[in-house]
Design brief:
By secondary structure, this protein is an alpha/beta fold. It is 39% helix and 19% strand. The chain has a single domain, classed as Rossmann fold (3-Layer(aba) Sandwich), CATH 3.40.50. Strands 1, 2, 3, 4, 5, 6 and 7 form a seven-stranded mixed sheet that branches. Helix 1 links the parallel strand 1 and strand 2. Keywords: Flavoprotein, FMN, Oxidoreductase.
Length: 214
């Protein structure tokens, strides 16, 4: 059953590439374009926000140290919390996700990702690093009660030349992941996403100290 033409879905993209231009951002843009195109064909309007985490690196560090988010970081966190779908793309460093990527995830509210469809993307020098999607990144989002789609899309340096990994080309993998993601996003309703019943409405310090501030 397809959505009504007036349906709007909010997709947030976070890219943790460190260089400019960045193959990580390039992959993120491709995943967003294919996902948006598929949803558009179904009559679903897409509102997309893209955040480059390198632009928020100082704010993320300050949040981890001081416990509050500056306005630019707060905007990104609010966007994630209000999204119908998240596209998360990171380079692979030393067989796992980038530290900047993990630091951003660490400052997201614990229940903000509950029931949120996530399309995982990763980039690296060789196809050997593709395993990091399933042993490092996917468990991270599963732990946070998000719904990562079955297909994670990895792009090695050689993939951008069009040859791919000899099994399925990068464009094919992008389309497969985007299709699974679009299917979930189309069915997502922000108003029915489950909130963790054990999450705290206020910080623990407020509860222990009897504080009433927000």
């Amino acid at each position: 059953m397809t959505a009504e033409p007036s349906t709007v879905r909010r997709i947030v993209v976070v890219s943790s590439g460190l260089s400019t231009p960045s193959s990580t951002r390039q992959l993120a843009d491709r995943l967003l374009a294919d996902s948006s195109g598929l949803l558009g064909e179904r009559g679903v309007e897409v509102e997309a926000r893209v955040f480059e985490l390198r632009d928020l690196a100082h704010d993320i560090a300050n949040h981890l140290l001081m416990g509050f988010a500056p306005p630019s970081l707060e905007e990104a966190l609010d966007a994630v919390a209000g999204a119908d779908g998240l596209i998360a793309v990171t380079p692979i460093f030393t067989t796992s996700y980038a530290g900047l990527f993990k630091s951003f995830v660490d400052v997201i509210e614990p229940d903000a990702l509950t029931d949120l469809p996530v399309l995982i993307g990763a980039t690296g020098g060789t196809p050997r690093h593709s395993l990091a999607i399933d042993y490092a990144i996917r468990p991270l989002f599963t732990y946070l009660h998000a719904i990562p789609v079955t297909t994670g899309v990895f792009a090695a340096t050689g993939d951008w030349g069009g040859g791919g990994d000899g099994v399925r080309s990068l464009p094919d993998r992008i389309m497969r992941g985007a299709t699974e993601f679009a299917d979930l996003v189309e069915r997502t309703d922000r108003s029915t996403r489950v909130r963790d019943p054990f999450s705290l409405d206020r910080p623990m310090g407020h509860l222990l100290g009897g504080l009433t501030g927000q």
